[in-house]
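ok so for the tutorial part 2 we go from a plain amino acid sequence to predicted structure tokens. step 1 is just haveing the sequence, like this:
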Amino acid sequence: MEFDPSLENTLLAFADRLGGPVPALMLLAAAAVVLFGLIAARRNAARQRLAAEAAGQRFAELLKAQTEMQGRLAAMAEVFGSRQAETNQAINARLDGLTQRLGQSISEQTRATHENLRRLQERLAVIDNAQTNIQSLAKDVVGLQAILSNKQTRGAFGQSRMETIVADALPTGAYQFQPQLSNGVRPDCTIRMPNGQPPLVVDAKFPLEAWNALAAAKTPEAAKAAGQQFRRDMETHVRDIAEKYLIAGETQDTAFLFVPSESIFAGIHEHFEAIVQRAQRARIVIVSPSLLMLSVQVLQALLKDQRMREQAHVIQGEVVRLMDDLTRLDDRVRKLHGHFTAAQRDVDQILTSTEKLAKRGLRIGELEFEAAGADPDRGEERAVESRTGQLRLRVVDED
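step 2 — the prediction. this is what the tokens look like for a chain of 399 residues:
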């Protein structure tokens, strides 16, 4: 092992620092320490050198691997570039097809949308017309509600409907509207009865306020109160009709109370049976439009039967005169038949004479035929038939 001069210098510098001669043992120890430090330093340097060589070798390997990786990356980049170009081309082709299909779809959808919009506009026009009709109907309903809310106009509405039914079914003169009775009251209508009977009174006024309140009631208490009010109004109205319009000898002992609605009529008979029975005991008949029409048609049939009975004697006289005319016609036909019989006998005699003349004509014709049938060239004899006999002549042809 070669002694390092730096080690000697180091020991001397250490001795100088100690300030005097150093014992040999201590010097040796220091030298050993320094030697071991140098050995360790060299080992560390060798290790570092080996590590540096290994690191360099690894760096070289890394550079080689990086170079190979770069080559591979370049190859992959080239492959990826070609594949990306193909992919871009395929994507462009697909995008073109998709764009074309989308354009066709959008065009078809646009046409369908326009068609649907056209149909929608037509339907909206129909809806507008229907809305206009509904608005006009709403105005009519409001007007009807205004009519029904007022007693006078409501009475005029019921009376108008009743007058329409009566006037359509009965002939003029079989009824009267607003006639005055002996007690000064004016019923809505009186219908003439057959056989000289007193007329039938029809009242068209109906208490509708309580009924509307009953229909609009939302609680049982309100419905009960409205029902009681309607019952009282109906009883009062039935009593007024019985007292004012049922006059002995002047009107019938039964009167009609006209209800201008089938639903109200059904509701009264369904929920207010006591009112119906009370009206029947007072000889007041509650009628709906259909029942009034049926009753009027029955009265029309009775009036027609009465008119036929009144005209029965006239019809009988006409039948008697018709029989006289038939008798005279029979006599004249018989005389004409006699004339035709005598004329027939004359015609038969004429026919007999014509038959005889025809037979004689035939015989004369046969005679002329035989004379015309002889041949003059041969000098044949011609036979002439007469009534007395036959005469044969010989005819000689002369040159």
